[in-house]
Design a protein that fits this description.
Belongs to the WD repeat BOP1/ERB1 family. GO terms for molecular function: ribonucleoprotein complex binding. Pfam families: BOP1NT, WD40. The chain is an alpha+beta fold. Helix content is 24%, strand content 22%. It contains 10 helices and 30 strands. The strands form 9 sheets. A 4-stranded antiparallel beta sheet has the order 5-30-29-28, with no helix packed on it. A 4-stranded antiparallel beta sheet has the order 6-7-8-9, with no helix packed on it. A 4-stranded antiparallel beta sheet has the order 12-13-14-15, with no helix packed on it.
Length: 684
Amino acid sequence: MKKVREKTAKKRSKEEEEEEEEQIFNFKDKPAGKEEEDEDLSDSEESVFSGLEDSGSDSEEDEKESDDNDDEDDDDVTAVESKQPKQTEEEEEKEEVVGGVTEREEEEKKEDEYEHDSSDEEDIRNTVGNIPMEWYKDFPHIGYNLDGKKIFKPIRNKDELDDFLDKMENPDYWRTVHDKQTGSDIVLSDEQVELVNRLQKGQFGDVNFNEYQPSVEFFSSDVMIHPVTNRPADKRSFIPSLIEKEKVSKLVHAIKMGWIKPRRVEDDTRGRFYDLWAGEDSSILGRHKMHLPAPKIPLPGHQESYNPPPEYLFTEEELALWEQQDASDRKLPFVPVKFSSLRQVPAFSRFIHERFERCLDLYLCPRQRKMRVNVNPEDLIPKLPKPKDLQPFPTTQSLVYRGHSGLVRSISVSPSGQWLASGSDDGSVRFWEVCSSRCMKTVQVGGAVKRPVCLSTCRPHSYVASSCECGRAVHQVAWHAKGDYLASVMPDHSSHLQVLIHQLSRRRSQNPFRKNKGLVQCVSFHPVRPYFFVATQRSVRIYNLVKQEMTKKLQANSKWISSMAVHPGGDHVICGSYDCRLSWFDLDLSTKPYKMLRHHKKAVRGAAYHRSYPLFASASDDGSVIVCHGTVYNDLMQNPLIVPVKVLRGHVITHDLGVLDVTFHPTQPWVFSSGADATIRLFT
């Protein structure tokens, strides 16, 4: 009996353990009928395999003995049962009810033990871990459970139409979430929806949590008698640490050796607002090989001070000259003004305009990198011959022709070089003997001779003065080389009759142009070919008189042409302008100036070539006549040689006017000049 009871107790204990394991690992509850079937199966399995557990340790004799003992025990049990009185059916039902209640209570307790699980772990039915579920898109399963078996994907036959109908008909569609781990749809409860809404609003998940609850201060504001802690300070708190000293020394050594580089502290504001041109060298552009830094603004000088020295203030003449000049030609963009104190200085009216122009210069003006070459500065100077080697040329003032009472605007020398004619604003034309500077004859023309006095190259007794057939003032007269033709210039913006060509033999005049091509300044005939030069304000047009067409247009690159002269060879032209420039043109080379001479400081009034010597001269309002050597070679591959040789001075500047006209002697290296001081001077 004892053995039977022990076996039955062992069986019951094993059954209870198996039931607990099944309840632990089975998340879904099974029906009561199935549990009874499982218990029966477990009993049958134990009855089948109960003998196998002890088969490995007992021999055949022990098995026989145990069988005999079992038979004896069974007989004893039957005997005992026969001796015990039978129970009534009511008592058996009561015992079953009592036993059933106890068993159900135990099951409920076991279920309640895992119902309110406080763990934060997610559903661990799928054990693939935190991986992209896209890896399983080509497989029929979606993962593995705890037993290592595949979790197959649920069959989803919904298309877009079914999804739309579900959206319109299913009231819980908006709270349905697809679980990628299990491939199923989960309907959120009201508590879960409320939790999601609170988290989206930035609130705490727990409704009962009070974020504004009063904090408990550890230290109160009241001064206590006794300190909170009165522990004496450690010895290491006021003695330098040897370990830290060793670490610091190692770091210092590493920094000195360059093994450790300190961190660069970058300014946060630089990423948002920074000066574009301040840190060019340290910026990305500064490290670029072809980067060109922006030019710096020159520092302010004494003239920009609110109390400049007296020598920096403008006089009335300087102020009038500053106002007449163009903005690009002014040395200063402002007029220096003196104030008694800094408080009286007004705001700069052109400040925004000036800053805007600076930004445009930085943004739009192109920059060019100039490659530096180690060259001796003396090698850059052209090797010009010495002036002594280029003689003869006029160097000294020999004679002064006096007699006019007004500005002498025009002079002309006879072909023989014996006579000189001059026209003045005093209304007279005078004839002078060149060698003696004596006035041989004076002719009153009844008006100021503004420009044209010209002696014919073939007829010494012919001259043209200040009037013509049309009743307008003649600005210039030019003779043809043969002496039968002459051209007159009458500038007028509104008329095309600005240039007339007169023929003396037939006594007739003609207008060569039908249209107005601009304000004509001066004209000239080609010395050899049938070409006619017409100079306007900014260009020189060359016309072929035989073909009656324009052959070339020269761009002077100046603002206003004042005078023009043609080389005796006919292949070179010089033009003087009111912007202090003298342009040399090579007709066989280009339509642009071959060389620009800026030797004068004021407007150039006249220019002339010598007929036989390689000389040309220019007259200016600065009171000087500059004589230059200009050799023209027959070899077209060799450029002309232009060398300034002498600056001749002698005229007195009157009413801001200096030398008004210049011409060479036809046979000698002499030059005549007429000025605003009513004199004519001969330089030999």
